[in-house]
Each structure stands twice: as C-alpha cells, then as structure tokens.
C-alpha cells in the first residue's frame, strides 16, 4: 500500500486528543458512519455501534494483529517500524526497525510473519520481535517485488501477494508480473496466479474452499476455488469497489465465521456476503489500509487507517486462520 507523507504525523498526533472517544466527525476527516445497503448489514453491526480511536501519532499504519495479552501488532510504513500497541492505554512500544513493514499475521506457533517490502521478503520475527529470519525472498531465482499481505492457509502453508506498490525506488523489478504465491511448510515457493495487476489483500473462507484476493489497480475482488494440494481454479470476479480518485482502493480483507467478507475500499470498510452482495460500508475518518479481528470472542474489528488505529464492535465473530480449529 502506498504511504502518506511523513508530514501527516502532525495531523495524526492531534488525534491523540480523542483516544478512546467516539468519532462522530472531526475537521479535515470524513464523518464516521454505518452505511447500510442491505438490511442484512444490521445483523453484523448494531445501529448504535461506535468507532473509537485506539492509538494515534503514526506515519502510515498497516498489518494489525491482535494478541490476547492485551496488545496489537502494528506496522508503520512511514516510520519503518513495527510496534506493539497497548490496547488499554494506546501507548506504542517500538519492537523492531524494519524498512517498510506491511501486512502481518501469526503462524500456528504464534510467531509473527511480516511482509517486509524493502527486504522484498516474507520474514518471521523471533518471540521477542527483536530479530527475524527470512522465510522466502525469491521465486525461480528472482527477487520478489514488494510482498504486501499474508495469510495462513487451511493447509498450514503461507499465502501472500506480491505487487509492485512498494517496490523500492531505483531497484529493478526482477519478476515480470505481480503474483500471488504459496510457501509450503518445507519452504518451497509456488506461483498460484498472475491474473491480477496489483494483488493486495487476501483471505480464505472459513471452510477453506474459497480463496479471495483483491486488486488495488483494477479495484475489484476475485474469488477462486481452493483445491487440495494448495492450488487455485475457476478464478472469477466476486465484486468491484469503485470510488473517487482519492477515496481509497481495495486493500486488506478479513472474513467472519459465517463467510461475510470485510474489505478495505473507498471511504472505509466494505462488507460483502458470501454470494457477492455488498451489504454496507463502515465509513472511517481516515482511509484504512487493513484490519484484524480481536477482543473477547473475536468480535471487534481493529482498523489501521493512515495515522491511527481504530476499533469497532460487531455482532459477528471473526474467522482467524491461525487459531486451533
């Protein structure tokens, strides 16, 4: 995801005045709103649900991962750091300095996987987060472009997108396309598809039979049949998220246990049912980049949006691939 200028930190810091307070509309920002397109939207959100700020003062937030120890992992693509955010106080603890960290997830052993754009690699952090090891950084001998988002598959393999959105200026694109890949438990890298022009967010259905990935350039979401052995088939357009030139594009996505899909899009988080119907949109004051389930019962959505992190309670229960079945 492309980042906003560092100057936005000044604006973001002002948001600290509202930490923990409902966001009903602030100067220079969109007004928070729950926009229902279908009555089914209200089965997922209470009409009186509030969006609140958890932490602020970032450069550009990405890659939220909730931990039941009471913190949230957050990447900052402008400050080039990964933080632990205390969910009770909003305080940020720097964990590691890392050029342009992006999407994150846990593996089955509760270790953080990060899409390290500058390293052009998928990395795994140590338990204390201070060091890392490279999981994969090449396909067919060529360096990845700029890994963007990552998810754990139903087979235990790692799946990630590799657009050129954060390819380091002046560095050569070695792979002549933007792909979606699978890393097996043995560390073998396999290309799944190169159908998309700028693949970004990705997610699996709760039953493991569908695989979703969005395209930030085409502004749409594709769905594939996920087959045994970790292959894709029958790719088709699931939905489109069109908007104005500065309203945002499809980015991170998550799924609830009933198969509804929550996808970053113009102005906020677009909510889709499994049949491809747009149910409504959570309008967020700052443009989001990603989101994660957390909280008691995984019923809270944590949203990384430009200079801040927000949360909203839902009626849904999140599907979290790395949790035990």
Walkthrough of the structure:
There is one protein chain. With 325 residues, the protein is mainly beta. The chain has a single domain (8-313), classed as Neuraminidase (6 Propeller), CATH 2.120.10.30. The chain has one helix and 27 strands. It has one helix at residues 8-14, and strands at 33-36, 51-55, 61-67, 71-76, 81-86, 92-97, 101-106, 112-116, 121-125, 132-136, 138-139, 142-143, 150-152, 158-162, 179-183, 189-193, 199-204, 210-215, 220-227, 231-240, 253-255, 261-265, 268-272, 278-283, 288-294, 300-305, 308-313. It starts with 7 loop residues before the first helix and ends in a 12-residue tail after the last strand.
CA-based shape:
globular
Listing every helix as H and every strand as E from the N terminus to the C terminus, the arrangement reads HEEEEEEEEEEEEEEEEEEEEEEEEEEE
Q: What's the CATH superfamily, by name?
A: TolB, C-terminal domain
Name given to the CATH architecture: 6 Propeller
Domains (count): 1
């Amino acid at each position: 995801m492309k980042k906003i200028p560092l100057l936005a930190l000044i604006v973001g810091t002002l948001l600290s005045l509202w930490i923990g307070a409902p966001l009903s509309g602030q100067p220079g920002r969109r007004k928070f709103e729950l926009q229902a397109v279908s009555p089914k939207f209200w089965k997922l959100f209470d009409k009186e649900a509030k969006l609140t700020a958890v932490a602020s003062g970032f450069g550009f937030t990405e890659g939220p991962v909730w931990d039941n120890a009471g913190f949230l992992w957050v990447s900052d693509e402008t400050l080039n750091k990964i933080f632990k955010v205390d969910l009770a106080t909003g305080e940020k603890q720097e964990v590691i300095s890392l050029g342009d960290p992006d999407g994150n997830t846990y593996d089955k052993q509760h270790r953080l996987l990060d899409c390290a754009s500058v390293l052009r690699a998928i990395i795994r952090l140590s338990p204390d987060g201070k060091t890392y090891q490279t999981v994969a950084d090449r396909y067919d001998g060529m360096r990845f472009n700029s890994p963007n988002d990552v998810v754990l598959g139903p087979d235990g393999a790692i799946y990630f997108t590799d657009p050129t959105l954060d390819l380091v200026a002046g560095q050569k694109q070695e792979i002549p396309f933007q792909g979606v890949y699978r890393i097996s438990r043995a560390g073998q890298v396999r290309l799944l598809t190169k159908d998309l022009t700028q693949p970004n967010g990705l997610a699996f259905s709760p039953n493991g039979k569908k695989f979703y990935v969005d395209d930030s350039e085409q502004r749409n979401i594709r769905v594939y049949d996920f087959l045994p052995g970790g292959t894709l088939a029958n790719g088709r357009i699931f939905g489109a998220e069109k908007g104005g030139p500065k309203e945002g594009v499809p980015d991170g996505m998550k799924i609830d246990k009933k198969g509804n899909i929550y996808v970053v899009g113009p102005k906020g988080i677009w909510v889709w049912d499994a049949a491809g119907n747009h149910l409504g949109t959570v309008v967020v004051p700052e443009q989001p980049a990603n989101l994660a389930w957390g909280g008691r019962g995984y019923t809270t959505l944590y949203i990384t949006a430009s200079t801040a992190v927000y949360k909203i309670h839902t009626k849904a229960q999140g599907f979290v691939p790395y949790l035990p079945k």
